[in-house]
Amino acid sequence: MDNKHDILTLLRSVAEGATSPEEALLNLKEVPFEDLDYAKIDYHRSIRQGASEVIYGEGKTPEQIKGIVTAMGERGCRNILVTRIGQEAADILCGAVPAEYHPLPKLAVAFPEEREHRGSIVVATGGTSDMPVAEEAALTAETLGNNVTRLYDVGVAGLHRLLSNLDPIMSARCIVAVAGMEGALASVIGGLADCPVIAVPTSVGYGASFGGLSALLSMLNSCASGCSVVNIDNGFGAGYLASMINQMEGL
């Protein structure tokens, strides 16, 4: 049992009398994870959270990444996200399994599969230099089944660029604001939008930005209501949270 659909199919089979409760129990008792020695793959992640386990590629060898993804693919996992993966590891992965690699955010999607996209998420950046983090957020959200609008290089140094895009901002269900330097973009968008804003500080900036710490503190101290903040350069976390917000019923 690797996803909610499988569980529901099994339960309906029991309700219809095609499967005995004992058989169903045996299926549900399958090991919920697989031990590869170097990794323990959580196959019940999609049942609990609605999405397969995401692989953090940095620090893993290409062979480890390939092994984890291959095992997940054999169990029917699709649209497997691999974040922070370098070109060498990506080449090995793409040679072993169906996968799409996006070099700017260093993100791969293994066993890609079309799915219905819903709602509306906006991903905005203060500058072009913030795009790698923003693309990680945007591609994560798209892979999880969301419509994403990108508004790049609309920072406060030229506020008219942001104000000329009010329609997508006003119609979004969730907005991801990605910015380095002083990180003011999140507060500005938070003062314009009536939906949750997820602020992503980036490590872009000169010395006094302290590798994104300045933007992080600015975003944490935002006076705009409805702003939450993820860790420095954590585009994946922002995209995942935006997906959860966007797909909540009744939002």
Automatic annotation (TrEMBL):
- Every copy of the PurE domain together lies at 119-251
Gene3D superfamilies assigned to the protein according to its UniProt record, in alphabetical order: 3.40.50.1970
- Give a GO molecular function annotation for the protein: hydrolase activity
Biological processes annotated in GO: 'de novo' IMP biosynthetic process
Signal sequence interval, chain numbering: none
Q: SUPFAM superfamilies given for it?
A: N5-CAIR mutase (phosphoribosylaminoimidazole carboxylase, PurE) (SSF52255)
Q: Which InterPro entries does the record cross-reference, listed alphabetically?
A: P2CMN_synthase_LarB, PurE_dom
Indicate what this protein is called per its UniProt record. Nickel pincer cofactor biosynthesis protein LarB
Q: Which Pfam families match?
A: AIRC
